[in-house]
Amino acid sequence: MSEVTQAVGRTVEHGLGTPAFMIVASMAALLATAGFHTWWVRRHGHAPPADDAGARPPAVEPPAGAAGPAASGPEGGAAAEESALWRMRTTVRDAPGSLAVLCAALADRRVDILSLQTHPLADGTVDEFLLRAPGGLTGTELASVVSAAGGADTWTERADAHDLVDAPARALALAARTALDPAELPLVLRQLLGRCTVRSLPARAPGADGVPAEGTLEGTVLRLRAPEGGVITVERPYLPFTPAEFARARALAELDARLGPRLPRGRDVLTLPQGSDITVRRADSRDLRAAKAMHERCSEQTLGMRYHGPVGDADRYLNHLLSPRHGRTLAVQTASGRIVGLGHLLWDGDETEVALIVEDAWQRRGIGSELLSRLVATAAGAGCASVYALTRASNTGMVAAMRGLGLPLDYQIEEGTLVITARLDPASPAAARPPHGERVGRE
Questions:
Q1: Which of 236, 313, 394, 426 has the most CB atoms less than 10 A away?
Q2: Class of domain 267-442
Protein backbone atom coordinates (compact mmCIF):
# COMPACT_ATOMS: atom_id res chain seq x y z
CA MET A 1 0.00 0.00 0.00
CA SER A 2 2.82 2.47 0.76
CA GLU A 3 4.36 1.82 -2.67
CA VAL A 4 1.00 2.59 -4.29
CA THR A 5 0.76 5.85 -2.37
CA GLN A 6 4.25 6.92 -3.40
CA ALA A 7 3.59 6.07 -7.05
CA VAL A 8 0.34 8.05 -7.18
CA GLY A 9 1.95 10.90 -5.26
CA ARG A 10 4.83 11.16 -7.72
CA THR A 11 2.34 11.22 -10.60
CA VAL A 12 0.39 14.05 -8.98
CA GLU A 13 3.55 16.03 -8.21
CA HIS A 14 4.62 15.86 -11.87
CA GLY A 15 1.24 16.94 -13.20
CA LEU A 16 -2.38 15.94 -12.96
CA GLY A 17 -2.56 15.52 -16.74
CA THR A 18 -1.23 11.96 -16.53
CA PRO A 19 -3.81 9.51 -17.94
CA ALA A 20 -5.81 7.79 -15.20
CA PHE A 21 -5.20 4.32 -16.68
CA MET A 22 -1.45 4.75 -16.10
CA ILE A 23 -2.06 5.40 -12.39
CA VAL A 24 -4.32 2.37 -12.05
CA ALA A 25 -1.92 0.15 -14.01
CA SER A 26 1.02 1.15 -11.80
CA MET A 27 -1.00 0.53 -8.65
CA ALA A 28 -2.08 -2.89 -9.91
CA ALA A 29 1.48 -3.95 -10.75
CA LEU A 30 2.81 -2.91 -7.35
CA LEU A 31 0.05 -4.68 -5.46
CA ALA A 32 0.36 -7.86 -7.50
CA THR A 33 4.12 -7.94 -6.86
CA ALA A 34 3.62 -7.44 -3.12
CA GLY A 35 1.01 -10.19 -2.98
CA PHE A 36 3.21 -12.69 -4.85
CA HIS A 37 6.16 -11.87 -2.60
CA THR A 38 4.13 -12.55 0.54
CA TRP A 39 2.85 -15.85 -0.86
CA TRP A 40 6.34 -16.98 -1.89
CA VAL A 41 7.95 -16.17 1.46
CA ARG A 42 5.28 -17.94 3.49
CA ARG A 43 5.16 -20.97 1.21
CA HIS A 44 8.93 -21.57 1.34
CA GLY A 45 9.66 -20.22 4.80
CA HIS A 46 7.23 -22.48 6.69
CA ALA A 47 7.74 -25.84 5.04
CA PRO A 48 7.48 -28.91 7.28
CA PRO A 49 10.82 -29.67 8.99
CA ALA A 50 12.79 -32.68 7.79
CA ASP A 51 13.23 -35.67 10.10
CA ASP A 52 16.61 -37.09 11.17
CA ALA A 53 16.99 -39.02 7.92
CA GLY A 54 16.43 -35.88 5.88
CA ALA A 55 13.00 -36.93 4.59
CA ARG A 56 9.80 -35.00 5.09
CA PRO A 57 7.02 -36.54 7.16
CA PRO A 58 4.28 -38.34 5.21
CA ALA A 59 1.21 -36.41 4.09
CA VAL A 60 -1.67 -36.31 6.56
CA GLU A 61 -4.30 -38.93 5.72
CA PRO A 62 -8.00 -38.10 6.04
CA PRO A 63 -9.67 -39.47 9.17
CA ALA A 64 -11.28 -42.86 9.01
CA GLY A 65 -14.74 -42.77 7.50
CA ALA A 66 -14.23 -39.36 5.89
CA ALA A 67 -15.50 -39.15 2.35
CA GLY A 68 -12.85 -38.46 -0.27
CA PRO A 69 -13.34 -36.43 -3.41
CA ALA A 70 -14.89 -39.34 -5.30
CA ALA A 71 -17.36 -40.14 -2.56
CA SER A 72 -18.66 -36.58 -2.46
CA GLY A 73 -19.52 -36.47 -6.16
CA PRO A 74 -22.35 -38.08 -8.09
CA GLU A 75 -20.34 -41.29 -8.67
CA GLY A 76 -19.89 -41.71 -4.95
CA GLY A 77 -23.63 -41.75 -4.42
CA ALA A 78 -23.53 -39.00 -1.77
CA ALA A 79 -24.48 -35.33 -1.93
CA ALA A 80 -21.75 -32.77 -1.53
CA GLU A 81 -21.31 -31.73 2.09
CA GLU A 82 -22.60 -28.29 3.02
CA SER A 83 -19.85 -25.82 3.84
CA ALA A 84 -19.43 -22.39 5.43
CA LEU A 85 -16.93 -19.58 4.93
CA TRP A 86 -14.92 -18.36 7.90
CA ARG A 87 -12.40 -15.61 8.54
CA MET A 88 -9.83 -16.56 11.13
CA ARG A 89 -6.83 -14.91 12.75
CA THR A 90 -4.30 -16.61 14.93
CA THR A 91 -0.77 -15.92 16.16
CA VAL A 92 1.90 -18.57 15.48
CA ARG A 93 5.57 -18.83 16.25
CA ASP A 94 7.65 -17.44 13.41
CA ALA A 95 9.62 -20.67 13.01
CA PRO A 96 9.95 -23.18 10.17
CA GLY A 97 7.20 -25.77 10.31
CA SER A 98 4.81 -23.91 12.61
CA LEU A 99 2.45 -22.92 9.82
CA ALA A 100 2.65 -26.40 8.28
CA VAL A 101 1.49 -28.00 11.55
CA LEU A 102 -1.47 -25.64 11.72
CA CYS A 103 -2.43 -26.30 8.08
CA ALA A 104 -2.22 -30.06 8.64
CA ALA A 105 -4.57 -29.75 11.63
CA LEU A 106 -7.09 -27.86 9.51
CA ALA A 107 -6.82 -30.41 6.71
CA ASP A 108 -7.49 -33.17 9.23
CA ARG A 109 -10.90 -31.56 9.87
CA ARG A 110 -11.55 -31.14 6.13
CA VAL A 111 -11.06 -27.37 6.26
CA ASP A 112 -9.93 -25.79 2.99
CA ILE A 113 -7.63 -22.73 3.08
CA LEU A 114 -8.81 -20.30 0.38
CA SER A 115 -6.42 -17.44 1.14
CA LEU A 116 -3.75 -16.44 3.64
CA GLN A 117 -2.31 -13.09 4.69
CA THR A 118 0.58 -12.62 7.10
CA HIS A 119 1.13 -9.82 9.63
CA PRO A 120 4.69 -9.99 11.06
CA LEU A 121 5.11 -9.13 14.73
CA ALA A 122 8.21 -8.75 16.89
CA ASP A 123 7.73 -12.16 18.53
CA GLY A 124 5.59 -14.08 16.05
CA THR A 125 3.29 -13.79 13.08
CA VAL A 126 -0.44 -13.10 12.88
CA ASP A 127 -1.88 -15.28 10.11
CA GLU A 128 -5.24 -14.28 8.64
CA PHE A 129 -7.10 -17.08 6.84
CA LEU A 130 -10.18 -17.31 4.68
CA LEU A 131 -11.47 -20.84 5.19
CA ARG A 132 -14.15 -23.11 3.78
CA ALA A 133 -15.16 -25.50 6.54
CA PRO A 134 -17.79 -28.23 6.88
CA GLY A 135 -21.14 -26.73 7.76
CA GLY A 136 -21.31 -28.50 11.11
CA LEU A 137 -18.02 -27.05 12.37
CA THR A 138 -18.56 -24.13 14.76
CA GLY A 139 -16.27 -21.18 15.36
CA THR A 140 -15.43 -22.48 18.83
CA GLU A 141 -14.45 -25.88 17.45
CA LEU A 142 -12.38 -24.24 14.73
CA ALA A 143 -10.51 -22.17 17.32
CA SER A 144 -9.89 -25.30 19.43
CA VAL A 145 -8.35 -27.11 16.45
CA VAL A 146 -6.02 -24.18 15.80
CA SER A 147 -5.06 -23.77 19.45
CA ALA A 148 -4.13 -27.45 19.69
CA ALA A 149 -1.88 -26.96 16.65
CA GLY A 150 0.05 -24.10 18.26
CA GLY A 151 -2.08 -21.06 17.41
CA ALA A 152 -2.70 -18.41 20.07
CA ASP A 153 -5.18 -15.55 20.48
CA THR A 154 -7.39 -17.11 17.82
CA TRP A 155 -10.36 -15.12 16.49
CA THR A 156 -13.04 -16.41 14.12
CA GLU A 157 -15.93 -14.78 12.26
CA ARG A 158 -18.33 -15.99 9.60
CA ALA A 159 -17.46 -14.70 6.13
CA ASP A 160 -19.40 -14.34 2.89
CA ALA A 161 -18.76 -14.19 -0.84
CA HIS A 162 -17.43 -10.61 -0.61
CA ASP A 163 -14.38 -11.93 1.25
CA LEU A 164 -13.38 -14.10 -1.71
CA VAL A 165 -11.68 -11.15 -3.45
CA ASP A 166 -7.91 -11.52 -3.18
CA ALA A 167 -6.07 -9.00 -1.00
CA PRO A 168 -4.12 -7.12 -3.73
CA ALA A 169 -7.25 -6.58 -5.85
CA ARG A 170 -9.20 -5.45 -2.79
CA ALA A 171 -6.46 -3.00 -1.77
CA LEU A 172 -6.30 -1.62 -5.31
CA ALA A 173 -10.06 -1.02 -5.37
CA LEU A 174 -9.94 0.79 -2.00
CA ALA A 175 -7.02 2.96 -3.14
CA ALA A 176 -8.91 3.86 -6.32
CA ARG A 177 -12.00 4.87 -4.31
CA THR A 178 -9.85 7.06 -2.08
CA ALA A 179 -8.17 8.67 -5.09
CA LEU A 180 -11.48 9.53 -6.74
CA ASP A 181 -13.31 10.94 -3.73
CA PRO A 182 -12.03 12.27 -0.35
CA ALA A 183 -15.37 11.46 1.30
CA GLU A 184 -14.62 7.77 0.78
CA LEU A 185 -11.69 7.64 3.22
CA PRO A 186 -13.71 6.83 6.40
CA LEU A 187 -15.69 4.17 4.53
CA VAL A 188 -12.56 2.74 2.92
CA LEU A 189 -10.89 2.45 6.34
CA ARG A 190 -13.93 0.55 7.62
CA GLN A 191 -13.75 -1.91 4.75
CA LEU A 192 -9.98 -2.28 5.07
CA LEU A 193 -9.97 -2.92 8.80
CA GLY A 194 -13.28 -4.72 9.35
CA ARG A 195 -15.88 -3.76 11.93
CA CYS A 196 -14.53 -0.60 13.48
CA THR A 197 -15.54 2.89 14.54
CA VAL A 198 -14.03 5.77 12.53
CA ARG A 199 -14.19 9.29 13.94
CA SER A 200 -12.81 12.58 12.61
CA LEU A 201 -11.65 15.32 14.98
CA PRO A 202 -11.02 18.88 13.73
CA ALA A 203 -7.60 20.38 14.31
CA ARG A 204 -8.73 22.44 17.30
CA ALA A 205 -10.61 19.63 19.05
CA PRO A 206 -9.28 18.21 22.37
CA GLY A 207 -6.86 15.36 21.73
CA ALA A 208 -6.05 16.38 18.15
CA ASP A 209 -2.71 18.02 18.96
CA GLY A 210 -0.76 15.09 20.39
CA VAL A 211 -0.69 12.89 17.30
CA PRO A 212 2.59 12.92 15.32
CA ALA A 213 2.66 13.18 11.54
CA GLU A 214 3.26 9.44 11.16
CA GLY A 215 0.28 8.57 13.39
CA THR A 216 0.11 6.26 16.40
CA LEU A 217 -0.84 2.62 17.01
CA GLU A 218 -1.97 1.56 20.48
CA GLY A 219 -3.48 -1.92 20.50
CA THR A 220 -7.08 -1.57 19.39
CA VAL A 221 -6.82 2.15 18.55
CA LEU A 222 -4.92 3.82 15.72
CA ARG A 223 -4.72 7.54 14.98
CA LEU A 224 -3.84 9.17 11.67
CA ARG A 225 -3.22 12.78 10.79
CA ALA A 226 -5.97 14.05 8.49
CA PRO A 227 -4.91 16.06 5.42
CA GLU A 228 -6.69 19.20 6.65
CA GLY A 229 -4.87 19.09 9.99
CA GLY A 230 -7.30 17.13 12.16
CA VAL A 231 -7.09 13.54 13.37
CA ILE A 232 -8.82 10.37 12.19
CA THR A 233 -9.32 7.85 15.01
CA VAL A 234 -10.08 4.19 14.30
CA GLU A 235 -11.16 1.85 17.10
CA ARG A 236 -11.69 -1.90 16.93
CA PRO A 237 -12.10 -3.22 20.48
CA TYR A 238 -12.59 -6.86 19.53
CA LEU A 239 -9.24 -7.30 17.71
CA PRO A 240 -5.89 -5.45 18.08
CA PHE A 241 -4.48 -3.80 14.99
CA THR A 242 -1.25 -5.14 13.57
CA PRO A 243 1.66 -3.00 12.29
CA ALA A 244 0.82 -4.16 8.76
CA GLU A 245 -2.78 -2.89 9.08
CA PHE A 246 -1.51 0.39 10.52
CA ALA A 247 0.85 0.81 7.55
CA ARG A 248 -1.99 0.14 5.08
CA ALA A 249 -4.32 2.65 6.75
CA ARG A 250 -1.55 5.25 6.90
CA ALA A 251 -0.81 4.71 3.19
CA LEU A 252 -4.45 5.41 2.29
CA ALA A 253 -4.44 8.59 4.38
CA GLU A 254 -1.18 9.67 2.73
CA LEU A 255 -2.66 9.03 -0.73
CA ASP A 256 -5.66 11.18 0.18
CA ALA A 257 -3.39 13.98 1.42
CA ARG A 258 -1.21 13.95 -1.71
CA LEU A 259 -4.19 14.29 -4.05
CA GLY A 260 -5.65 17.26 -2.16
CA PRO A 261 -9.23 18.64 -2.39
CA ARG A 262 -11.30 17.05 -5.15
CA LEU A 263 -14.88 16.08 -5.93
CA PRO A 264 -16.44 13.70 -8.45
CA ARG A 265 -17.60 15.68 -11.47
CA GLY A 266 -20.88 13.86 -12.01
CA ARG A 267 -24.12 15.76 -11.57
CA ASP A 268 -27.73 14.96 -12.47
CA VAL A 269 -30.08 17.44 -14.11
CA LEU A 270 -33.70 16.68 -13.18
CA THR A 271 -37.09 18.12 -14.01
CA LEU A 272 -39.40 18.50 -11.03
CA PRO A 273 -43.14 17.73 -11.36
CA GLN A 274 -43.81 21.49 -11.49
CA GLY A 275 -41.56 21.78 -14.56
CA SER A 276 -38.46 23.43 -13.02
CA ASP A 277 -35.02 22.02 -13.81
CA ILE A 278 -32.65 21.41 -10.92
CA THR A 279 -29.14 19.99 -10.67
CA VAL A 280 -28.13 17.54 -7.93
CA ARG A 281 -24.40 17.36 -7.28
CA ARG A 282 -21.83 16.74 -4.58
CA ALA A 283 -20.83 19.67 -2.40
CA ASP A 284 -17.94 20.44 -0.04
CA SER A 285 -16.43 23.32 1.92
CA ARG A 286 -15.87 25.28 -1.30
CA ASP A 287 -19.65 25.78 -1.38
CA LEU A 288 -19.62 27.50 2.02
CA ARG A 289 -20.49 30.96 0.69
CA ALA A 290 -23.43 29.71 -1.40
CA ALA A 291 -24.67 27.57 1.50
CA LYS A 292 -24.57 30.57 3.86
CA ALA A 293 -26.50 32.66 1.36
CA MET A 294 -29.21 29.98 1.19
CA HIS A 295 -29.46 29.91 5.00
CA GLU A 296 -29.90 33.69 5.05
CA ARG A 297 -32.88 33.32 2.70
CA CYS A 298 -34.51 30.65 4.91
CA SER A 299 -37.15 31.55 7.48
CA GLU A 300 -36.58 31.11 11.21
CA GLN A 301 -39.11 28.28 11.17
CA THR A 302 -37.19 26.36 8.48
CA LEU A 303 -33.89 26.87 10.30
CA GLY A 304 -35.49 25.83 13.58
CA MET A 305 -36.83 22.62 12.02
CA ARG A 306 -33.37 21.77 10.70
CA TYR A 307 -31.23 22.73 13.71
CA HIS A 308 -33.77 22.09 16.51
CA GLY A 309 -33.35 25.50 18.10
CA PRO A 310 -31.78 28.94 17.69
CA VAL A 311 -29.21 29.07 14.92
CA GLY A 312 -25.85 30.51 15.94
CA ASP A 313 -22.74 31.06 13.86
CA ALA A 314 -23.45 29.54 10.44
CA ASP A 315 -19.74 29.38 9.54
CA ARG A 316 -19.03 27.02 12.42
CA TYR A 317 -21.60 24.33 11.72
CA LEU A 318 -21.57 24.63 7.93
CA ASN A 319 -17.80 24.09 7.81
CA HIS A 320 -18.34 20.85 9.71
CA LEU A 321 -21.31 19.71 7.64
CA LEU A 322 -19.62 20.41 4.30
CA SER A 323 -16.38 18.63 5.21
CA PRO A 324 -15.99 15.32 3.35
CA ARG A 325 -14.26 13.92 6.46
CA HIS A 326 -17.53 13.86 8.34
CA GLY A 327 -19.80 12.45 5.64
CA ARG A 328 -21.27 13.31 2.30
CA THR A 329 -23.21 16.41 1.20
CA LEU A 330 -25.50 16.80 -1.79
CA ALA A 331 -26.52 20.22 -3.09
CA VAL A 332 -29.53 21.15 -5.23
CA GLN A 333 -29.03 24.19 -7.43
CA THR A 334 -31.26 25.98 -9.89
CA ALA A 335 -30.56 26.72 -13.54
CA SER A 336 -29.01 30.03 -12.43
CA GLY A 337 -26.55 28.18 -10.15
CA ARG A 338 -28.12 29.20 -6.81
CA ILE A 339 -28.16 26.52 -4.10
CA VAL A 340 -31.70 25.95 -2.77
CA GLY A 341 -31.29 22.68 -0.86
CA LEU A 342 -28.68 20.67 1.05
CA GLY A 343 -28.69 17.06 2.20
CA HIS A 344 -26.09 15.71 4.61
CA LEU A 345 -25.12 12.11 5.38
CA LEU A 346 -22.95 12.24 8.51
CA TRP A 347 -20.71 9.43 9.76
CA ASP A 348 -21.22 9.45 13.53
CA GLY A 349 -19.05 6.61 14.80
CA ASP A 350 -21.06 3.43 14.37
CA GLU A 351 -24.20 5.40 13.46
CA THR A 352 -25.19 7.39 10.38
CA GLU A 353 -27.33 10.54 10.48
CA VAL A 354 -29.22 12.11 7.60
CA ALA A 355 -30.26 15.79 7.62
CA LEU A 356 -32.01 18.03 5.09
CA ILE A 357 -32.75 21.71 4.57
CA VAL A 358 -34.63 23.22 1.63
CA GLU A 359 -35.15 26.92 1.04
CA ASP A 360 -38.75 28.01 1.80
CA ALA A 361 -39.63 29.01 -1.77
CA TRP A 362 -38.59 25.56 -3.05
CA GLN A 363 -40.31 23.39 -0.45
CA ARG A 364 -43.11 20.91 -1.28
CA ARG A 365 -41.66 20.19 -4.71
CA GLY A 366 -40.07 16.83 -3.94
CA ILE A 367 -36.55 18.17 -3.42
CA GLY A 368 -36.27 16.84 0.15
CA SER A 369 -37.45 13.38 -0.88
CA GLU A 370 -34.99 13.43 -3.80
CA LEU A 371 -32.07 14.22 -1.53
CA LEU A 372 -33.15 11.74 1.13
CA SER A 373 -33.52 8.81 -1.26
CA ARG A 374 -30.04 9.43 -2.72
CA LEU A 375 -28.39 9.72 0.68
CA VAL A 376 -30.08 6.59 2.02
CA ALA A 377 -28.99 4.67 -1.09
CA THR A 378 -25.42 5.85 -0.42
CA ALA A 379 -25.61 4.67 3.19
CA ALA A 380 -26.95 1.27 2.13
CA GLY A 381 -24.20 0.91 -0.47
CA ALA A 382 -21.61 1.68 2.21
CA GLY A 383 -22.90 -1.19 4.35
CA CYS A 384 -24.63 0.92 7.02
CA ALA A 385 -27.26 -1.01 8.95
CA SER A 386 -29.46 2.04 9.57
CA VAL A 387 -29.74 5.82 9.25
CA TYR A 388 -31.50 8.17 11.63
CA ALA A 389 -32.94 11.67 11.38
CA LEU A 390 -33.37 14.16 14.23
CA THR A 391 -36.26 16.57 13.83
CA ARG A 392 -39.25 18.10 15.57
CA ALA A 393 -42.48 16.15 15.72
CA SER A 394 -44.15 19.06 13.90
CA ASN A 395 -41.85 18.62 10.89
CA THR A 396 -44.40 16.72 8.84
CA GLY A 397 -42.34 17.10 5.66
CA MET A 398 -39.38 15.16 7.07
CA VAL A 399 -41.64 12.53 8.59
CA ALA A 400 -43.41 12.05 5.24
CA ALA A 401 -40.09 11.81 3.39
CA MET A 402 -38.82 9.12 5.76
CA ARG A 403 -42.06 7.18 5.41
CA GLY A 404 -41.81 7.50 1.64
CA LEU A 405 -38.59 5.45 1.66
CA GLY A 406 -40.60 2.26 2.09
CA LEU A 407 -38.19 1.00 4.78
CA PRO A 408 -38.89 -0.23 8.33
CA LEU A 409 -38.95 2.77 10.66
CA ASP A 410 -38.51 3.20 14.40
CA TYR A 411 -39.78 6.33 16.19
CA GLN A 412 -38.48 7.64 19.50
CA ILE A 413 -38.87 10.91 21.41
CA GLU A 414 -35.72 12.14 23.17
CA GLU A 415 -35.94 15.41 25.13
CA GLY A 416 -38.64 16.74 22.85
CA THR A 417 -36.82 15.73 19.66
CA LEU A 418 -38.19 13.08 17.31
CA VAL A 419 -35.65 10.43 16.26
CA ILE A 420 -36.67 8.42 13.18
CA THR A 421 -34.46 5.44 12.38
CA ALA A 422 -34.69 3.62 9.06
CA ARG A 423 -33.31 0.07 9.01
CA LEU A 424 -31.47 -0.58 5.76
CA ASP A 425 -31.17 -3.64 3.61
CA PRO A 426 -28.63 -3.10 0.78
CA ALA A 427 -30.59 -5.55 -1.41
CA SER A 428 -33.89 -3.74 -0.89
CA PRO A 429 -35.25 -1.79 -3.87
CA ALA A 430 -36.11 1.05 -1.50
CA ALA A 431 -32.44 1.43 -0.56
CA ALA A 432 -31.53 2.13 -4.18
CA ARG A 433 -34.70 3.76 -5.43
CA PRO A 434 -34.48 6.00 -8.51
CA PRO A 435 -34.75 9.79 -8.24
CA HIS A 436 -38.24 11.27 -7.88
CA GLY A 437 -37.77 13.83 -10.65
CA GLU A 438 -37.56 13.04 -14.31
CA ARG A 439 -33.94 12.81 -15.38
CA VAL A 440 -33.00 15.14 -18.21
CA GLY A 441 -29.32 14.30 -18.44
CA ARG A 442 -26.03 13.84 -16.70
CA GLU A 443 -23.20 16.35 -16.94
A1: 236
A2: alpha beta
